[in-house]
Write a structure and sequence with these properties.
Elements: H1 2-5, H2 13-27, H3 30-34, H4 77-91, H5 97-109, H6 118-128, H7 141-150, H8 160-178, H9 184-200, H10 206-221, H11 258-281, H12 287-302, H13 309-331, H14 343-351
Length: 375
């Protein structure tokens, strides 16, 4: 009877839990029960830890091909000389100058320019300057500047005569091209170097003036050629006529005596410095260049006796034009309505009226209107 009363009730707790365990056992398959747990994640390797070497039996992958620039060369002296001769034959061509000059720079960097090969390298520089106007062409300025700047590292290997010519070419290829920069520091540094070379020139003699007159007379008999200077701006100071056509001749190949060679060298240096004055003058329309040009032109005028007659006339014209420009800037008005003066003139005008005293310059203009705040 009692058993009939409890037929509708659930079984005891122990029996129910046993059934749940049995059912779970039935659900778990033998394959899943025998499968081992997954291995733990591998620990991160240190970046400083070297990889283990491959076993000898395992083949290694071929190394990747990389493009490397050779800074040294194992070429023999004969091969270096042949390379320099080949560069010499091509560097005269303006269309091939860029590539030829880069090859010449590579020879410098590789240490191939030595005492035994210096004459052949000088022939490269001489061929590059066979036309003294090409170095200032807009498309070639950077390459000329790079070549003659790099050549400074091996200039001590050249003979004294070659060094003198190299210094003259450097004026045209490096300093003159620095005058076309947009960097005020580079421009001022170039004008400073030009001033130093002007100061180092000897005083011009009557023989120098006579030689210049004879050369000018001979040039007028020949067929006139267009001006070698190519510039989009007009010649504001009439200095283009001083770039002599005869400068295209090589000075090194001259067979004259040392005295005559020195005269030719001095003539070439004067003309190179006049060219620098010409290039600087053409940049006078840039306000930030005006102060440096004013100082350079004044210095050339103060050392005018170091130049020949025709060059002295051009420098006088340059300085007169500079002074006229200064007067216009002080009297005229610019577009902004302010006085069109450069930085040097502005400071000169400002401090010319300032009252400066060690004891009394406390406030503005020395009026002692500053209040004491130290207590």
């Amino acid at each position: 009877m009692a058993g009939d009363l409890f037929q509708d009730l659930p079984p005891p707790v122990a029996v129910q839990s046993q059934q749940i365990v049995q059912s779970s056992v039935k659900i778990t398959t033998p394959e899943s029960s025998s499968k081992p747990p997954p291995p733990p994640a591998p620990a991160l390797k240190s970046a400083l830890k070297r990889p283990k070497p491959r076993p000898e039996s395992q083949p290694q992958a071929p190394p990747e091909k990389r493009l490397r620039f050779k800074t040294t060369t194992d070429a023999s002296e004969k091969q270096v000389i042949e390379a320099m001769q080949k560069i010499t034959s091509h560097i005269k061509n303006p269309s091939k100058f860029s590539k030829a000059s880069k090859l010449a720079i590579q020879l410098i960097q590789a240490g191939s320019v030595k005492e035994t090969t210096s004459d052949y390298f000088f022939a490269v520089l001489e061929a590059a300057m066979s036309s003294l106007t090409s170095c200032n062409e807009p498309s070639l300025r950077a390459d000329y500047h790079a070549l003659f700047s790099a050549a400074q590292d091996v200039a001590q290997l050249l003979s004294k005569k070659q060094q003198n010519l190299f210094s003259t070419w450097t004026i045209r290829a490096v300093w003159a091209n620095d005058l076309f920069t947009d960097d005020g520091f580079v421009f001022s540094k170039a004008t400073g170097r030009i001033k130093e070379d002007i100061s180092a020139l000897p005083l011009a003699t009557k023989d120098d003036d006579m030689e210049e007159a004879i050369a000018l007379k001979d040039e007028t008999k020949e067929t006139e050629e267009p001006s070698p200077i190519t510039s989009e701006e007009p010649d504001p100071f009439g200095l283009d006529a001083l770039i002599a056509k005869g400068n295209k001749e090589s000075l090194f190949n001259s067979k004259k005596d040392d005295e005559q060679e020195n005269r030719r060298l001095l003539k070439s240096k004067r003309e190179a410095l006049i060219s620098c004055l010409d290039f600087a003058a053409k940049r006078y329309n840039m306000p930030w260049c005006q102060t440096a040009i004013d100082i350079l032109a004044k210095h050339a005028f103060e050392n005018i006796s170091r130049f020949t007659a025709l060059q002295r006339g051009a420098i006088e014209k340059l300085w007169a034009s500079i002074k006229e420009q200064q007067t216009r800037r002080k009297q005229g008005k610019s577009v902004s309505g302010k006085l069109d003066v450069n930085g040097f003139e502005w400071l000169q005008q400002k401090y010319s009226t300032e009252k400066i005293s060690i004891r009394r310059s406390v406030g503005g203009n020395g009026d002692r209107q500053c209040q004491q705040w130290l207590g």
